[in-house]
Amino acid sequence: MIKALFLAGASIAVGTIAQAGDVMRMAVTTSFHNSGLAEVLLPAIQEDLDLEVQLLVVGTGQAIKLGEAGDVDAILVHSKGAEMKFLEGGYGTHRREIMYNDFVVIGPKADPAGIADDGSAAEALQDIAAAEAAFVSRGDDSGTHKKELSLWSSAGLDVATFGGWYNAVGAGMGAALNTASGMNGYILSDRASWLNFGNKGDLALLYAGDPVLFNQYAYLPVNPEKHPHVKHDLAISLEEWLTSDRAKELIDGYTINGETLFVFNAQQ
Amino acid sequence: MGDLWSGLTQAFWLVVTLDSELVEIALRSLQVTLGALVVASAIAMPMAAFLAVKRFRFRRPVIALLNALMGLPPVVVGLVVYVVLSRSGPLGALGLLFTPTAMVIAQVIIIVPLIASIAHQSIRDLWQEYHDLLISMNVSQRQKMQTLIWDARRALLTAALAGFGRAIGEVGAIMIVGGNIDHATRVLTTAIALETGKGDFALALALGFVLIGLAITVNLGIHWLGRTEREGRW
Amino acid sequence: MTQMFPVTLSGATARRQGQTLVGPVDLTLDGGGTCVVIGPNGSGKTTLLRLLHGAARLSTGRIDWACDTELAHRAQAFVFQSPVMLRRTVEENLAYPLRIKGEPKKAAHAKARDWAARVGLAGLLNRPAPVLSGGEQQKLALGRALISSPELLFLDEPCAALDGRSMRDIETILTEAKAQGTKLILSTHDMGQARRLADTVVFLLRGKVHEVADAKQFFDEPETAQAKAFLKGDIVE
């Protein structure tokens, strides 16, 4: 009986090694994945290109790292500074803007800091800091985290001086939203993650619309000169597809609860 | 409370309707874990028998080390395996990162010390019992190990089940080395982490209940198989 | 057949943790029939048997078999005072010594069934050995020792905890084995058993050989006062 078990186990172990044919890997940010857009795009890509795109859903920091190590064939992220560095290091062949969505400030419905009628993102953040209302920061070096930090500094505030009301949780968007929901605090989120988030509790969307909150997604194929094994051809055909009219239609047409999330802005 | 209840009902429906995605990730969980278990047992059990019968200078330190490694943090194992298997790591050329094989490797590293430690304890006790007889029969070192492993098989099954339990519920390491890729490396535990991240606690709980159910079923199944053995009476 | 006899012990000593268990012993056994080792508890009977079988380490001195020591040990078997039961069935226990010598499974098991009948365990073939009674376990141990046809069989107090009937069964098996040419070296503190089985007697006292004699002579006219006292049932130190 033990021998039979062993054989069964061994055959299973061997089975796991088997792999599919036309496959490429792309690192994407949690915020992109949480939007649910991937579930619309991936089947269409599979259909049009006969290409299985395996997504590694990570923070921007790790996505860049994966690209640098050659563990993925392309990355789709939203942090221009980090992207430019990636290119300067020669890790990517080029950067192609695909689409943008926007960040929103979420907070308790009661809005103790009174940000709902503010005129700019900077003002909203200043109000939160002044009220010392609980604020949850991703704190994970992700694109969203970097955006938040740049917003604080453009509001003339230094995160390092903040007191106990500022909570850097070091977690992904969903986990951070869970934390904000748990402590009924403010948080900066991308709109898609917020709309798809299932545990809203007492939170509400309080501020949005300032152009500085726009969030540009860009596609960067990994440089085959650095990593000869990457599937550069597949990465390029995926890029062509992502900037095609078909993609434009799907991206612009994607809504949650009737709200449009992304705006296609690739140069065709 | 509401989440718990809807998690339970959702779990029930997922199982009853044999939800295809659930079946896929549950099977992958089983595949990866059983694969790791087979490989780990094939390493750990001879190792345990060897440590029981062979006297060598560093035997005690090795046993102590093995016991200490039972508490190996999976996240660290995952990270090390990741770095080694990464394209820019020493074994990068194999292209194993983000495959089920990488997950099996990480789990093997996590459960070998556990299985070997538990197995060593029972084999050592049996060896004390058998020592005089086997020595008197001029049994070779290899035959000693075979005899001990075979006759301690019921205790070794317990050791293997402990390994299975640790592996099937593990998330830290396989999340890192597997990448939680849909239709490729997503398993029950990483799916639970993902759904929790999306704030969909009901679905996360449902998957959790399925995971617990799976673990219990496999345990009972193996125990039942063990008991149907005729000699399995002591 | 190896020619292992005569065996000579010269200054053979076993010391453990500063205590001398046996020795120094100078003794030659020519392997004529059955040798019974007697002596009070703690006189070193078990250790002497183990030294001869190579299951205990000599501290000083030497033991020389007529043939190569390794070959001699291989042609011997040992039955322990409390039998070691493999966690297997009776049949598998009996087949075990043959299987480790590479005998095919079928032949080994046929012989095992044959030997089970010879030692009176035919009805218990599929019983797990560890659940047998003391007498049954000792018979199984005996069968398992004899199945590989040893030229010399050591028995360390084989009937120490057994009832009269089991003892008789075991002595019958031993007598048969002896008739087939197996030499026996057996320790006991049952003088009746010693009288029934012995051809030669070795009388141990405080780890040393106190007297070696032909059985009849030893029991009728022991040479030393201690042997006389021991046979009478007095306490001897």
UniProtKB/TrEMBL annotation, chain A:
Q: Which Pfam families match?
A: PBP_like_2
Query: What start and end residues bound the annotated signal peptide?
Result: 1-20
Q: Which InterPro entries match?
A: ABC-Tungstate_binding (IPR052738), PBP_domain (IPR024370)
Give UniProt keywords alphabetically. Answer: Signal
Residues in domain PBP? Answer: 26-246
What gene does the UniProt entry assign to this protein? tupA
Entry annotated with the keyword Chloroplast: no
Q: What protein am I looking at?
A: Tungstate-binding protein TupA
Give the top-rank taxon of the lineage listed in the UniProt record for this protein: Bacteria
Origin organism lineage: Bacteria, Pseudomonadati, Pseudomonadota, Alphaproteobacteria, Rhodobacterales
Record's keyword annotation contains Signal: yes
Database matches in Gene3D superfamilies: Periplasmic binding protein-like II
UniProtKB/TrEMBL annotation, chain B:
Gene Ontology cellular-component annotations: plasma membrane
Q: Name one GO biological process term.
A: transmembrane transport
Domain ABC transmembrane type-1: start-end pairs:
26-222
Q: Please give the PROSITE patterns that the UniProt record associates with this protein.
A: ABC_TM1 (PS50928)
Keyword field contains Zinc: no
**Keyword terms of this UniProt record:** Membrane, Transmembrane, Transmembrane helix
- Topology with regard to the membrane? Multi-pass membrane protein
Give the superkingdom in one word. Answer: Bacteria
TM stretches of this protein: 30-53, 65-85, 91-116, 155-181, 201-225
Chief localization: membrane
**Location(s) in or outside the cell:** Cell membrane
PANTHER family the UniProt entry points to? PERMEASE COMPONENT OF TUNGSTATE ABC TRANSPORTER
Q: What is this protein called?
A: Tungstate uptake system permease protein TupB
User: What is the organism field in this record?
Assistant: Pseudoprimorskyibacter insulae
Q: What is the lineage of its organism?
A: Bacteria, Pseudomonadati, Pseudomonadota, Alphaproteobacteria, Rhodobacterales
TrEMBL record, chain C:
Q: What is its EC number?
A: 3.6.3.55
Alphabetized, the UniProt keywords read: ATP-binding, Hydrolase, Nucleotide-binding, Transport
Task: State the superkingdom.
Answer: Bacteria
This protein's record includes keyword DNA-binding: no
Q: Which InterPro entries match?
A: AAA+_ATPase, ABC_SmlMolc_Importer, ABC_transporter-like_ATP-bd, ABC_transporter-like_CS, P-loop_NTPase
EC category name? hydrolase
Q: Which PROSITE patterns match?
A: ABC_TRANSPORTER_1 (PS00211), ABC_TRANSPORTER_2 (PS50893)
Coiled-coil residues are none
Output the Gene Ontology terms for molecular function.
Answer: ATP binding; ATP hydrolysis activity
Q: Specify whether Transport is a keyword of the entry.
A: yes
Q: Where is the ABC transporter domain?
A: 7-231
The record's SUPFAM superfamilies line, in alphabetical order, gives:
P-loop containing nucleoside triphosphate hydrolases (SSF52540)
The name on file for this protein is: Tungstate uptake system ATP-binding protein TupC
Q: Where does this protein come from, organism-wise?
A: Pseudoprimorskyibacter insulae
